[in-house]
Amino acid sequence: MAKAFFRLQKFLRRTQFLLFFLTAAYLMAGSLLLLQRTRLVIQQGTRGTPTNQALPVPEEMGRVGITDSRALQSPRPGPRLLVRMDALQEPALDQRHSPHWLMARNLELRQLRRRWFHRYTSDQEPLQTAGFKAMKHTAEHKGTYMGCFTHDSRERTLKGAVFYDLRKMTVAHCQEACAERAYSYAGLAYGAECYCGNTLPAAAAKAEECNIECKGKKGSVCGGVNRLSVYSVEEMRAGARRGRNVIYRGCFRAPENLTDTFPASLIQPNLTVEMCSEFCSKKEFPLAVIRGQECYCGYPTGRFSLHEGMDGLRCSGTRNISSAAGGEHCLVYQTPVQDTRCTDRKFLTTKSKVFVALSSFPGAGNTWARHLIEHATGYYTGSYYFDGALYNKGFKGEKDHWRSRRTICVKTHESGKTEIEMFDSAILLIRNPYKSLMAEFNRKYAGHLGYATDRNWKSKEWPDFVKSYASWWASHVLEWLKYGKRLLVVHYEDLKQSLIPKLKEMVEFLNVTVTEDRLLCVENNRDGNFKRSGAKQKNFEPFTQDMKDLINRYILMVDEALRGRNFSGLPREYVPR
C-alpha cells in the first residue's frame, strides 16, 4: 500500500511540474508576442532591406556570385551562403557582413503590414456643435463658408481635382490647393478629403451633418460622412498667380472641325492667353486652344492627341495672339484645372483570380508606375508594405491587406524564392542602377520629395549604401527571372519616353480594357504627386571609379540574364559609365 501511494505521489509531482512548465512557456510566448507588436516604431522612410540582398562583387570577375541574403538575419559579421547564377560555375565566396545600420529585411518588412495602421481610418467622434464651429471657422480663412452639402464619391458634386491628407488636412490647405488650380469652390469630407469644382452642389444638407473634425486642426470641421463642407475660394491677386500656372504645350495642327472636337468655345476680339485660360478654367477643362480670336476648351482626345507638334514658326506671332495661329494651326495651353476623366478609382468588385505583383528595386519608379496603372485601369493597387505618405496622397490600396486580391496588382520589393512564387505573374520594373541608387538614397534621408544633403552624400554611409544596394539591384532582377512564373519586363526609361505604348502593354498584361481617351488623360496627369521638383545637380560626382566598376559588372550580368530569357537587354544608356 505504501509503495502504491509513493508512486501516485511521484506521478502527481511530475504532472504538477509539467503543468507549471507549460503555463510558464505559454505566458512567456504571449508576452514576447505582445512586446513585438507594441514596440514597433514606424520611422520615416522605412523600407525593407532585401531578402536576397547581395553584397559587393569580388574584385576578380571570374569569381562573381550573387548573395542569397536570406541568411542575413543578423547584422553581425560571419560566414554567409552565396547563391550563384546557373550559368556561373565558379565556387562561391564568403559574404562580407552588411553595414551595421541596415536591418534584416524580412523582419522589418513584416513589421510594416498595414494592419498596424487601422487607427488612420478609425471613426471620428462627431462634434456636438459642428454647425456652429463651421460657421465660426469662416472668420479664420480667406474663403466664405457656403454650407453643408450632400456628397457621393461615385457621382461627385464637385467634379474637379481631389486631394487627400489623413494627417494634416485643414480648411486652409484645401482652399489653397483648389485656388492654385483656378477652382471657385473647395469642399471637405471625412475630415481628410478635399474636392474642388466651379459649380456649387445643388443638394444642401443640415449643418449638423457636417460633423467630422479636420485631421490637421482640432476644432475645425471638414465635412462628414457623405457630406461636404463647402467654401468659396478667394480670388488670387490680380490673376497673376493663375497666369503662372498656365503651361504652353506647343503649336499643333488644328482639327478639321473644332466645334465638334472641343465642347466649349469663345470668340473674343483682342483675345489673350489669360482670357482664354480663365474661360476654360471656369468651364473645368484642362486645355485652352487658341486660333486667332477663337478660344476652344477641351481634353486631349484621339482626334487631338497632342502627339504631333508642329514647328513653332508655323505659329508665328505668339506675342500677338489675335494674329497668331490662324487658319490650319493653333496654340495649346495647359490650364491649372486637372484632367479628371481618369481620376476615379475603386477596389475590384470581385476577388482577382490572378495574383499580380508590381515588382521593382527601391528607387526604380514603383510609385510612379502605380500612379499610371491606377489612373489607366480605374482600380487601386496594393502594397506588400504600408507607407503612410502614399496613403495620405490617395493610394488607398496601401491599407488594404496585400493578399486581399481586391487590388489590380501589388507593389513589392521582395526577391526571395518563397515571396516570388506567391504571385501568379508580375510586372518587373527595371531602372538604371545609377539613378535607382540615388533616388533611394534621397528617399531614405529626405522622403519621397526631398534630396539628401551634401553631408549625407559625402559621409561613409553613401559608400556602404552603394556596396549593399548595388548587389541587391542585380539579385532582385535575377531572382525574379529565375522564379517568376509569368513576367512582363518594363524598363523605366522606355516607359518614360513612350508612355502610352508601354502603358498599353502593362494594362493588357493586367487583362483590363481601357479607352484611348483614358490613356490620354493619364498622359495629361503623368507626373502624379511624388515627382521631385527639378533635378538637383550635385556639385560633385557621387560615384567613385570603384563604385562604377562594381555597378557596371552587375549591369553586364543582368543584361546577359535578360537576353538569356529572351527579353530585350538593358537600354544602352545603362552601360558603361
UniProtKB/TrEMBL annotation:
Keyword Repeat: yes
Keywords, in A-Z order: Repeat
Record keyword Transferase present: no
Pfam families: Sulfotransfer_1 (PF00685), WSC (PF01822)
Gene Ontology MF annotations: sulfotransferase activity
PROSITE patterns linked: WSC
SMART domains, per database record: WSC
Residue ranges occupied by any WSC domain in the UniProt entry: 142-234, 245-342
InterPro entries according to UniProt: P-loop_NTPase (IPR027417), Sialate-O-sulfotransferase (IPR051589), Sulfotransferase_dom (IPR000863), WSC_carb-bd (IPR002889)
Family note: Belongs to the WSCD family.
Protein name (record): WSCD1 protein
Organism: Cisticola juncidis
UniProt gene name: Wscd1
